From TrEMBL:
This is 4-hydroxy-2-ketovalerate aldolase. GO terms for molecular function: catalytic activity. Gene3D superfamilies: Aldolase class I. Residues 3-250 form the Pyruvate carboxyltransferase domain. It comes from [Clostridium] leptum DSM 753. Coiled coil: none annotated. InterPro entries: Aldolase_TIM, PYR_CT.
Amino acid sequence: MSIRLLDCTLRDGGYINDWKFGYRTAKSIIQKLVDSNADYVEVGFLRNCSYDKNATLFNNIAELKKILPREQKNTKFTVMALHNKYDITKLEPNDGTVEAVRVTFHDYDIDEGLEFVKKVMEKGYKCFCNPINIMGYSDQEILNLIQKINQIKPYAFSIVDTFGSMIKSDLLRIYSLLEHNLDKSIVIGLHLHENLSLSYSLAQEFIGMRNVNRDCVIDGSLMGMGRVPGNLCLELIMDYMNKYDSVKYNVDSVLDAIDDHILAIRKESPWGYTTEYSLSAKYNLHRNYAEYLIGKGQLKAKDINHILSNISKDKKTAFDEAYIERLYLEYQDKMIDDEKSLNQIEKTVSGRKILLLAPGSSLKAYPDKIRSFIEKEQPLVISVNFESSDFKPDYVFFSNRKRYDDYQKEPHNVPVLATSNVITSGQREELIFNYHDLAFSEHGIFDNSMIMLLRLMSRIHVDLVSVAGFDGFERKKNNYVDTYYKTTEKGLLANEKIASAVSELKKEIKIEFLTPSLFQ
């Protein structure tokens, strides 16, 4: 009995580029995988979609055929379907083009998923059952699922570590349950993720522990391409298999595919291990929870750890944005009595021109214009989450805990304005304001630091502010006066939210832009 390798770059890797590999690129990747002697190539998703020849999403096998090479050697082709995102009536009877369909389902819709599996098999395809997040199943739940699987007898059943939380003892436990209870004719598959940087070592453990009398399939992708943090690297497991078994795979062909196509994609949209995704794996959570908190651009890894640790068991598997938003707000929202701070800053700004400095790259592009304004108007200068070295501020405003922590480690003489989510040092003059009051509007929460400072200005009855360095996010551009201030906030989405918030604020306060901005 053998171990076979399945490449899922064009399917799982599609989470990185929205499956828009390009027609010629997809064909080239498939050809190089065929030349490498890959046992299976998963060419994409079956989806209810508008067909685009440049994307690896298909309504049927007829569309999928268009990217397959004429010479297929010994490689077999597979495609994946989520039972609730594909109309099975669109799937043609198997004509031999695609050997297998891989079907996924959650722990809460097992029966619906298995009905879909039956329909796939009735059309003549081999079928892989890929239950999402098997780490979320108890032993008894796995045994109950195996009992149902044995009645259907699909081609394969995969151990899918959806949230990347598996360690060696987990793999041994789950594999043992399958090996001793799964019908002997059913292949065991393995699909790993890289949250804990363990996928390669776990794959080796799997090879060592497997029963040699049962066929197995191990998934990988080129350079581990897949939704962050990624998958098992196909090139590594191919090379390992060549050492473990007789030389079978042409690794050079896979390396060519990486050089020709994957490196460019990774440069634009990186994947790989990050501490935040290791934390989501630590608690066996849907990765969108970590993505949501990373996207805030406000939190350190330890803060994300604290928030993720509070997610209840019944919320772990299916992402609930409203729920994680509430946990985030509870963590951030430390209410205080800020009346004294408001009164003090209102007296300070009274009768003064106000200049707010954000850390956009336009500060370096238009220094003379900004200096001229300062010399002429003698404004009160407030910088946002940084102390400008070119334009000395009167105050530094912080609503970002990471930026404040960095700031307070060095000696500074500039007094601080901070929101109550920031844990201040008490070592310098500081005025603290309620985070909740500045982050919320009638449209919900938005805790962009400049927006919060503008709301503070409005709250203390400032009629006019001038702004510099409030540039907005643009792709393929250094958006910051210093790359140190770059955040992980999703730029284009942030632009939309900022523009909307600025539009609302203009009803309360006049905003003049000294430097070019997307929000003028």
